[in-house]
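Moderator note: this is an archived Q&A kept for reference. The question asked for a predicted structure of one protein chain; the sequence and the answer are reproduced below.
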Amino acid sequence: MRAIFQWNVGARVLELGRRTLIMGVVNVTPDSFSDGGLYIDAEKAVVRAEQLLDDGATLIDVGGESTRPGSSVALVAGDIKDDPARENTAARTGPPVSEPVSEEEERRRVLPVIRDLKRRRPDAVVSVDTYKASVARAAVELGAEVVNDVSGFRWDPKMAKTLAELKVGAVLMHTRGRPEEWRSLPPIGDPVLMVKRELLQWAEAATLAGIKRDRLVLDPGFGFGKRFEENYPLLAHFAELQKMGFPLLAGVSRKSFIGRTLARDGKDAEVAERLYGTLAAETGLILKGAHIIRTHDVRLAVEAARVADAIVASGG
């Protein structure tokens, strides 16, 4: 069975658990692995967000910086450097595939989209995908109700305090190291144990910083500093993460470990060829307790979730 939670996102509360909520992805970036460049124009991004809402998305996650493997993230003064994943790593395998996105550029990309989407769809639940506290604050001022931080509030030391002040919903995601380091990280002995232990530690730090427990959703961070073979144990044992006592979000949409599984003739499946593998993984995650699925393909995910939810409701 999947636990029921009341997620406090500020002005309203979202019930999690009776049915799976779908978070649609809108990347306002030129270089995201799945849809980079398609919605860099604010108007196109808003139209895309409206389409995802019409397709059944409950939340829209707007991001202005790619964190795909090899990308370089911006350094924030005082950021946390004691991540054990960053110790004893080998030299980088090459230069970053992209330069860090500045705070000013990220604001220029995402804020007009959030502003215009809230004007056109006032009831939409908008999430901003950022690890920068200043961008999160500006987005919330324009109507965002959720902050989705891939760093687990660790790359900007001001993030946890900022979220406590803003009193919005927050997604705390697990990641190892930084994208430019992922190729050289040492292997994980037990990915389920590590993710569970570190997510609980980071969630405790967040509550100590003043973020209320009922505002937090945890995400194990599929693909974020995990090798191909380390993602499937997380999928297989995702139900173990329910023991942490928090609602769970999962994002596997079109990720490279799915492409590797679907490889043909020694070549990984292209991003466009990973849809059915994505739906299989998302369905499995719902059956194992995911409350929110973050995806690019909302309409099909909504349909898959309705069937998976029926199985869960029947005791599956």
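Archived answer notes: Strands lie at 5-8, 13-16, 21-27, 59-63, 125-129, 146-149, 169-173, 216-219, 249-250, 292-295.
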